[in-house]
Amino acid sequence: MISVIIPTFNRPALLLRALRSLQLQLYPDWEAVVVDDGDGSGILAAHNLRDPRMVGVRNEGTGQVHARNTGLAHTSGEIITLLDDDDWLLDTTHLHRVVRALKSQAGLVYRGGYLIQERDGLELGRIPFDLKAAPQSLRSDNLLLATGAAYPRFFHDQLGLFDPEMSDYWDWDWYLRIVSAGYPLIQLPGRGVAVAMHGANMSYAARLQERQKNLERLSSKHGLSNLVLKDHRTIAGAA
Predict the structure, then answer these.
(1) How many CA atoms lie within 13 A of 86 on its CB side?
(2) pLDDT of amino acid 206
(3) Phi–psi pair at 117, nearest 5 degrees
């Protein structure tokens, strides 16, 4: 079984889009753990779909990293897949491809996709994001989209939970921990995931100082140097 962890905060309409993209998957053996870090509307949205594969739980901590760790505690699958509440899966065979890739070797599966520019529910444009990552390249840039990324559940038994101290860079930290343990990166072909870009998640200018401190914390933990503050849109534009 694949366990899909979806943290959510007060945007049930977007969450429903993510959940419905799961329901369209041709691989049926999955569970979605929706972790509500807000007013409870995410739990209600998951319940209203009346799909027994979906469960909603309250965040046992505060913030997105604690929410993902709460989700982990409620999973029962052998494979963990990440999905943000405002993103969705474009490829209906995505989960099938994940399972097939991890049958041959244990590693971190990732997928290219599109950065979707949205405003008031309308799509304004798509930016391709489909870069090949390597352990060495991860020491200078995060070239992976968290949505659609997957790996064996036992990685957490070996490497621990997501690190709340890494804040904005919890995903980059997790990837570095995986490759540092000697596990490979496995890129699935094609652009199979959609990552939303809208006012609620484009707060870089307002949080530059905070994000810089978080980046420095990541650098110190992994012995990285000369990291430059950037986002996936900037990385895509430079590719």
Answers:
(1) 19
(2) 62
(3) -85, 125
pTM for this entry: 0.94
Beta strands in the chain (DSSP E): 2-8, 30-36, 54-58, 79-82, 88-89, 108-119, 122-129, 150-152, 185-197
The sign one gets for the Cα dihedral 167, 169, 174, 177 is: negative
Beta bridge partners of 195: 115
What pLDDT was estimated at residue 205?
59
Residue 235: per-residue pLDDT:
84
Q: SS3 of 145, please?
A: coil
- Res 230: pLDDT: 84
DSSP string, 168-188: GGHHHHHHHHHHHTTPPEEEE
Per CATH, is 2-238 categorized as 3.90.550.10?
Answer: yes
Residues 6+ apart with CB under 8 A from 76: 1, 3, 31
Per-position b or e across 46-62, b if 16+ CB within 10 A of its CB: beebeeebbbbbebeee
How is residue 147 written in tokens? 């949505």
Residue-wise pLDDT tens digits, 220-237:
999 999 898 888 888 877
